[in-house]
Amino acid sequence: MNTTQGMDISAEVQVALETGQPVVALESTIISHGMPYPQNFETAHSVENIIHEEGAVPATIAILEGRIKIGLS
């Protein structure tokens, strides 16, 4: 994980950025309060799978413990 000032970028997203692969930013709202559990996790996982199938890298973004996290797993 690449850690910069106030941000943590997952290894997968960092490699994609360095190699010019497309990266799709996703907000974490669907997980935190957009849908009830477990539908929220199932939907988020499904969306990430579709993005991978289309040749891009998903980068779900959230603020956790005061830091911006890019590329949740």
Model description:
The chain is an alpha/beta fold and 73 residues long. It has one domain. It is 41% helix and 32% strand. The chain is built from three helices and five strands. A five-stranded mixed sheet has the order 1-2-5-4-3. Strand 4 and strand 5 form a beta hairpin. The N and C termini lie close together (12 Å). The mean pLDDT is 93.
Judging from the principal axes of the Cα atoms, what is the shape? flat
Give the proportion of residues in helices. 40-55%
SSE run: EEHEHHEE
What strand order characterises the main sheet?
Answer: 1-2-5-4-3
In angstroms, what is the radius of gyration? Answer: 12 Å
Oligomeric state, counting identical vs distinct chains: single chain
The share of residues in extended strands comes to 25-35%
Overall pLDDT level: 93
Give a count of the beta strands, DSSP E runs of length 2 or more.
5
Largest sheet: 5 strands, mixed
Q: Which secondary-structure class do the elements indicate?
A: alpha/beta
Distinct helical segment count: 3
First-to-last CA distance: 12 Å
